[in-house]
Write a structure and sequence with these properties.
The protein is built from four helices and four strands; from the N terminus they run ααβαβββα. By secondary structure, it is α+β, with helices and mostly antiparallel strands.
Length: about 200
């Protein structure tokens, strides 16, 4: 019986070893399967994160590109609008220069000087005229109660009269240049040439 006991003992050990081997294979398989699932899950998360990052970079790049194109288009539109405005005001300036050669203009110059004279009263003042209008100086001085010194002003390109009363600290500007420039803001606001 000893042989039988030894055989049984060896069989039991072999059976136990096989059971352990089978259990270890199962555990290894399960561990391998679990690690594979974790690796797949991590790979999927990494892939999703990379996709989000690439998408965010693409959006950022496209947004910057669109912003640059929009800015360029707005600049071009602004320059076009400014060019059109300058052209309109250049034509208006030419018409006003032609008007400044008419008898009606000479009367308007006297009327404007009369309004300034009424504003300044008996106070001394300085009148500024364009160089073309200096021949009207004597007639305009006669409209003032106080002393009126007349000076040529190179900033008056179109015409009209500007007066300064030091005692009252008032400048009265009746020049066609300033009246035309005042219309520029109105024109820009109301000519439907706005930049989007």
């Amino acid at each position: 019986m000893p042989k039988n006991k030894t055989d049984n003992f060896l069989k039991a050990i072999k059976k136990y070893a096989n059971a352990q081997k089978k259990a270890m294979k199962g555990e290894t398989k399960q561990l391998k399967s679990e690690r594979l699932r974790q690796a797949e899950k991590k790979a999927k998360q990494d892939s999703e994160r990379m996709k989000r990052e690439k998408l965010a970079k693409m959006r950022s790049r496209h947004t910057a590109m669109i912003a640059a194109q929009t800015q360029k288009a707005q600049k071009e539109l602004f320059l076009t609008r400014a060019g059109m405005t300058d052209e309109v005001f250049g034509l208006a300036s030419e018409k006003l220069l032609a008007y400044a050669k008419t008898p009606e203009y000479a009367q308007k110059l006297r009327d404007s000087a009369g309004e300034i004279a009424a504003l300044f009263g008996d106070n001394d003042c300085v009148l500024y005229l364009s160089e073309r209008d200096m021949n009207e100086a004597g007639e305009l001085q006669a409209l003032f109660s106080g002393k009126a010194e007349v000076q040529a002003d190179k900033t008056i390109q179109i015409g009209g009269v500007k007066g300064y009363c030091p005692a009252m600290r008032i400048i009265a500007d009746e020049t066609l240049d300033s009246k035309l420039e005042e219309q520029r803001d109105w024109f820009v606001e109301n000519a439907s040439l706005s930049v989007l």
